[in-house]
Every structure is written in C-alpha cells, then in structure tokens.
Write a structure and sequence with these properties.
Two copies of one chain form a homodimer.
Chain A: E1 2-4, H1 11-18, H2 22-28, E2 30-34, H3 36-44, E3 49-54, H4 56-62, E4 71-74, H5 77-83, E5 92-97, E6 112-117, H6 122-134, E7 139-142, H7 152-158, E8 166-169, H8 172-181, E9 186-189, E10 196-197, E11 207-212, H9 220-225, E12 228-231, H10 243-254
Parallel strand pairs in A: 1-4, 3-4, 6-7, 6-11, 7-8, 9-11, 9-12, 10-12
Antiparallel strand pairs in A: 2-5, 3-5
Helix pairs in contact in A: 6-7, 6-10
Domain RNA 2-O ribose methyltransferase substrate binding (chains A, B): 32-102
Protein name (chains A, B): rRNA methylase
Family (chains A, B): Belongs to the class IV-like SAM-binding methyltransferase superfamily. RNA methyltransferase TrmH family.
Chain lengths: 258, 258
C-alpha cells in the first residue's frame, strides 16, 4: 500500500523537512537523505530505512530494491522540490533511524581514527569522512562543536562513505587520553613550524589524527594532550591549507602501507 | 574626491554587479573582489586596482593603504548587500583590471604546473589554486571548460593565492605537447588501477600535473597524451576522492623536497 501525498502542507512533509535540521534529528532520532545514490547505499548497507518518499517514476524505477517492511509514499514534484537541498531534485527521499547503538567508545577501537575538533563547514566535514574512507581509516569521531553529520550538505559530501566507516560523537579529550593509555599515538595538526614535519612520522597500524577548526585550528587543551603535533610545510605564500585538503594529505601519508 | 552613491539603481552599482559574472568579465575586462582580506592582498601584490567601493567606515579604516590613483566611492549597506556574495558583507569592494599580459605560454615555464581540465565546482577550483600555492607550484592553467577564475566563489576559496602563483587560460593539449617536447613530464590523474601508483614516481623539479572533471575525470585525449597517468590507491569502499583533496595529495607528494 502506497500512500499518495499531494500537498506541501501535509504533516508528513513538514516532519520530513524537519528531519533535515539538527532540532529535528534530536526530536525524532531520524534523518532524511536524498537521491537514489545515497538511498540505495543506505539500503545496501543495511541501515534502518523506515520510510521512502518518492515520485511515481522513482518509486517504480527502484521498487525492486526497497526493503520489505519500508513505508512508501508517493509525492509530486512540488513536494520533492520543497524537501530537496538541490536545484534539480531527483525525487526520492528516505527517512533513516538514528540508532544509539552507533555510539563507539575509545577503549576497544583499533586501526586509524580521524577526530574532528569544532569543524564548521558541512562540505569540509563530509569531504573528510569520504577521504577517511578512501584512506582506509576505521572511523571518524565528531567532537563537541563539530557540525551535525545528519544535515543535507554533510550527507551529500560524504557520498555514501558514512556507511563504510564508523561515525560517532565523542568527547575528544576522553578519546585522546584513552587512546594514549592504550599505547596508540594521537597526532594533532598544527600550522606551527615547531610541530613535527608530517613526512618524518613512522607509520603505525593504530592511531588517532585530530583536525581542528577552519579559522582557529585545534583547541589549545587538545593540542597539549596529543602524543605529538604535525605540520605540513607550506612552500609558497599561502597562509594555510583548506582543512579537508590538509586532512587528505595527512591521512594518506600516515596510513600508507606499512 | 570620493563620490557617494546611495541608490542600488545607480549605473555603477549595476556595472559592479555585472563584474561578478563571466559575461561582465568578457565585456569590461575587469572583475570585482570583496572583503579587505582580498582587496588588501590585491593592492599589496601590485594588481591593477582601479576602483574601490566601500562604506564610510571601511573607507576611513583602510584609506592609508589605498593606491594613490584609485577612484573611490562611498556606498551604503544596501548597496554592499546587493554586491556581496556573502550573508554578512564587510562592505568593501574593488574593481581590478584583467590584463592580457597575464597570459602565460608553455614554451618558457619551469617548476611545477597544475593543469585543470573542465573542473566545474568553484570551491574545488579555488581550493586547488590555494593548495598549488602552498605546495610550491609555479602556476595553474585553466583549460577550456574549467569555470572562470574571476567569479566570487572561486575568488573566495583562492584566499589570495591568485596573487602568489601564476594563473592563465590555455589549451591543455598544447601545454602537454610543449612541456613534453621540453622534456618536462606531464602526469595525468586517473581512478584506473592500471595507472601508476602516485607514490612510486620520482620527484622532478619541472613537471605538469592534470586534474580532471569531478564526474568524468580527464578527457580521453589528454589521458592518452600525458607522459604517464597516476592513481591514488583507494583502501576503503569510497568510489573516489574529492578532486581538490586528490590534487592536494598528489601535489604534496610530487613536489616534496628533492
């Protein structure tokens, strides 16, 4: 049974819109994703997809791939446009539950972990998750003050990598201290030339890497708590690197084959 | 003498707005930049700044740093908002001449050069120019189909690096052939695992590196014309890297100290 919704004033449409905001995520413990690329990835990854809202054409096209128990809604182009974060919406959306079970603690993890300290820009956050996936990292920890991982722009730039690596919120001070107690080095990132050149670090299988806020860098407290802080030598006259580019350079260097 | 402009219907305001578009750049051979960070950088770099439009407060604050012969205009907040590409405009703008002398040809260049093949996203383009600067590249060549370097979003993400490295438009096929004739290797970038692992390349002082379109990668013709094509091994399940991140990883690897 597919329910048809034709009015943008419909309560479900309003709730779905709300599921693109931080407040909505906190209230309903659900978030909205858009486009078949990401909806399909979520289904393939066994994510708790509970509702699908799509145009008639999209419902028909992807019907065979939907999970059995998912609620389906047919929407029109006007509603698709209302829900969409893009200029030309594809016309397919899914509601996914946010499970508390997604929470990861630092006392049992292994492999490489990326820690985000107050990163603001959604594109930077999503790109770093995507790069962490590509560089073979196990997961990404969202510290306090880092923007939510359930907003449309972050989701779009993650390109499905949120289903390949573990994502969790966490207290970065606790993460740093616990990893260090477990003999896993934690690298900070600095612009400071007193920090260590990133190319001189010996590769490790298990470690943490912290990237800091776009304008201010890492917090002073975290900087003091790391095993060591790394910097990327700047050759030209640029004052700094974009944080997602710096994260990419560091992740591929630190996690290349041992 | 400072002319005061109070109406957003004023012809100068309309022209300045036009200078944020590709059509405007072609018609007037000028472009508009915004914010003291970039206006100040342009002046310091000796760029041909011909007009400054700013609020009374901004004019007063930066007066000492203006070039002698620059035309000055006082504008109000409403005009600043109209001209601005940001949510909270700083209230200072400059008109800069686009000089034909900026054109660079491949038959005399040395050092590392980044070649952009049909890159679409303004943020990616700007970030690559900023990273090229930081990685010690000499310049960036904008191939046909790559978005204009004079639009507000590209300018904002370049963060002043356009005044530190040489930027030019160029025919990439001509660049590749001329560099190769001059014994400078030209590296393509590919997702193809049949390409060469980027970490196995020996550093060179003089070379070209091509980055391709976000969705389609480099054109097949260019791919066939390069000295060799490189790929970054993907370890996780990500399908690809963001092009600006990939460019960062490649540029810092290829241009690290010999």
């Amino acid at each position: 049974m597919i329910e048809t919704i034709t009015s943008i004033q419909n309560a479900k449409v309003k709730k779905w819109q709300h599921l693109t905001t931080k407040k909505g995520h906190q209230k309903f413990h659900q978030y909205l994703v858009e486009g078949w690329h990401i909806v399909g990835d979520a289904i393939t990854a066994g994510q708790p997809v509970v509702q699908i809202a799509a145009t008639a054409a999209q419902l028909e096209q992807h019907q065979a791939d939907f999970p059995n128990n998912v609620e389906q809604f047919e929407i029109n182009d006007e509603i698709a446009k209302k829900l969409s974060d893009t200029v030309t919406p594809q016309g397919i959306f899914a509601v996914i539950d946010i499970l508390p079970a997604n929470h990861v603690t630092p006392d049992t993890v292994s492999g490489a972990w990326l820690l985000l300290d107050r990163i603001q820009d959604p594109g930077n956050i999503g790109t770093m998750v995507r790069t962490a996936d590509a560089a073979g990292f196990k997961g990404v920890v969202f510290g306090k003050g880092t923007a939510s991982r359930y907003t449309p722009k972050v989701i779009r730039s993650m390109q499905g990598s949120q289903f390949h690596v573990q994502l969790t919120e966490g207290d970065l001070t606790e993460w740093v201290n616990t990893l260090k107690d477990r003999q896993m080095p934690v690298y900070g990132s600095a612009l400071d030339e007193q920090a260590k050149d990133y190319q001189t670090v010996t590769n490790q299988a298990d470690f943490g890497l912290i990237m800091g806020n776009e304008g201010q860098g890492m917090s002073a407290d975290l900087m003091a708590a790391t095993t060591i802080n790394l910097y990327i030598p700047i050759k030209g006259d640029a004052e700094s690197l974009n944080v997602a580019v710096a994260a990419g350079v560091l992740m591929f260097q630190l996690n290349h084959d041992l």
